[in-house]
Amino acid sequence: MPTVRDRLAAPGPHFSVEFMPPRTDADEDILWRAVRRLEPLRPAFVSVTYGAGGSHRQRTIRVTQRIAEETTLMPVAHLTAVGHSVAELRQVIGSYAAVGVRNILALRGDPPGDPNGEWVAHPQGLEYTSELVALTKSLGSFSVGVAAYPDKHPRSPDLDADTKFLVDKIEAGADYAITQMLFSAEDYLRLRDRLAAAGVHVPVLPGIMPITSYGRLMRIHELSGQRIPDDLAEELRRVQDDPDAGRAVGMAHAIAMSEELLAHGAPCLHFYTFNRSKATIEVLSALGMAPAIRR
Question: Does residue 293 lie in a domain region?
């Protein structure tokens, strides 16, 4: 199986998408409709999330396996350290290898129940993502990606500390990084410049999801701590009682930001889909990376 690094090295522009493991049969139908609609557009890869504390571990493995076996898509499996001993992590990594998955996104993970709660390592587990990257690389020929924050992680005291944590993950063997949801291309460029100043040069993929309502924007800000452009917040606030207008504002912002990211050399646009395909395809169509949507 090729690796993410292989795919990103090919001529672009590229895009990738993220799915969540379904909780019900109905959710699974929604997921597979999105998979089939996006598959012909040939994303560089698709990633499948992994619930806090391993809450969706078996579903993640099953969905990842199905994508590998039943589609032409290349899956990247999420793996989190939270709530797992090293022995359990070895078992999960082995489960991925057994179904032919060699691309993994290594994450420390949020505390179960409360993403903003205190993070406590498993007594026989790992404290840092860099340790999880090193463990994964030691167990076979895996290509490993990591998460990056365009501003900084809410738990990091400052940008310098946040940059050091990211550099540590890359020096432990990570091949690329994917950012949390971005709200401005400038934040992405500043992150990339910080890594370059630290002597680190790996592909950094901007994370994109059109934000179509003021309430959702505020909720994402609360959970991630990422900076929100004042103009976007004000535009969405003004139309918060008009869902159609909110969607138009969010889509226009996502398209303009994507155009700017590609113009500045972003190697791949990573779309957070929440198991839907319409918004992603609409952005890609506007960028000329997918057939135009018929109205």
Answer: no
Q: Quick one: CA dihedral 84, 19, 155, 197, positive or negative?
A: positive
pTM for the full predicted model: 0.92
- Residue bearing tokens 């076979």: 140
What do you get for the CA distance between the two ends of the chain, in Å? 38
> What is the domain count for the chain?
1
CATH number for the domain that contains residue 162 = 3.20.20.220
Which pLDDT tens digits describe the chain residue by residue (295 residues)? 789 999 999 988 999 999 988 888 888 899 999 999 999 999 999 998 876 545 566 777 888 889 999 999 999 999 988 888 999 999 989 988 988 899 999 998 766 655 556 666 777 889 899 999 999 999 999 999 999 988 877 777 788 888 999 999 999 999 999 999 999 999 999 999 999 999 999 999 999 999 889 999 998 887 777 788 999 999 999 999 999 999 999 999 999 999 999 999 999 999 999 899 999 999 999 999 987 655 4
> Do strands 204-208 and 176-181 pair parallel, antiparallel, or not at all (unpaired)?
parallel
Positions marked catalytic: 18
Could you tell me the residue range of the domain that residue 202 belongs to? 4-211+268-286
Query: Would you say residue 14 lies in a domain?
Result: yes
